[in-house]
Amino acid sequence: MRLYLLHFGTMQPGGIPVCGYLIQADDGTNVLVDTGWPRSYVTDPMHPPGLTLEIAEEDTAAARLGSIGLTPGDIDLLICSHLDDDHSGNHDLFTGAELIVQRKHLELARSGHPRFARNRDAWDHPDLRYRMIEGDKEILPGVEVIETSGHVPGHQSVLIRLAETGPVILAIDAVMDQSMADPDEREIWLTDWAETPEDEAQIRASTRKLAQVASQERAALTIYGHDARQWPTLRHAPAFYS
Ligand SMILES: [Zn+2]
User: Fold this and answer.
1) From the CA of 226, how far away is ligand 1's center (Å)?
2) In this structure, is residue 240 part of a structural domain?
3) CA of residue 172 to ligand 1 center, whole Å
């Protein structure tokens, strides 16, 4: 099994990466995790408050897949960590795949919550096939989704057991940066869900859950969702972890 890290652009200031992942199973099954910002942002970026987006033509999901000889039509499964626009902007390209999402997250987004409305045409395209799951689930041998609500309700992270590297955790936005890995001390970020008083406790609980999985699995590597310091130290596609 191979794990490719796909660079989907950068937020400034701070050089904060936006990324996705491709898991290639030994039987050839291609599993994509997240699809980056909408490709329209290459020429017409929607800058979040206080940030500037840098997205080159080669940073789109289709171009990054192309760099490893794949097209969107080659993707069998698309794991949707969540539907923020930096993670779901090109879902509409993956009509041939099965999209795996936490039930409560898709239901929340489809209820019309404004947070997910901006690129609804991409993630709620009528030709997309969603499989709604609840909680932790093995997707393929060696690939598990871990429910990590907090950043948003129904966020999911991924555990991949690689033969040479060992277990790798994709924390995604449950833990965006290594500095947020301590469940008790971590900062609550501007974009973390904060609609009820229980939300902060849920963010800390999922941070703790990932730390426990890392310890139980003896994880070789935890990849954080938007970590400007860690990202340059990692192997990027077309290179891979195996
Ligand atoms: Zn994000």
Assistant:
1) 7
2) no
3) 7
Residue 124's domain comprises 2-233
Cα dihedral 69, 72, 76, 82 sign: positive
Distance CA 204, CA 180 (A): 10
Question: For residue 227, what is the domain's CATH number?
Answer: 3.60.15.10
The predicted-structure confidence for 172-194, as pLDDT tens digits, reads as follows 999 999 999 999 999 999 899 99
The single residue listed with the structure tokens 């690939």 is 143
pTM of the model: 0.97
Say how many Å lie between the CA of residue 81 and the centre of ligand 1: 9
Residue 203 lies in a domain: yes
What integer pLDDT is reported at residue 99 of this predicted model?
98
Burial degree of 222 (CB within 10 A; 0-12, 13-18, 19+)? buried
- Ion ligand 1: residues, CB within 5 A, are 86, 173
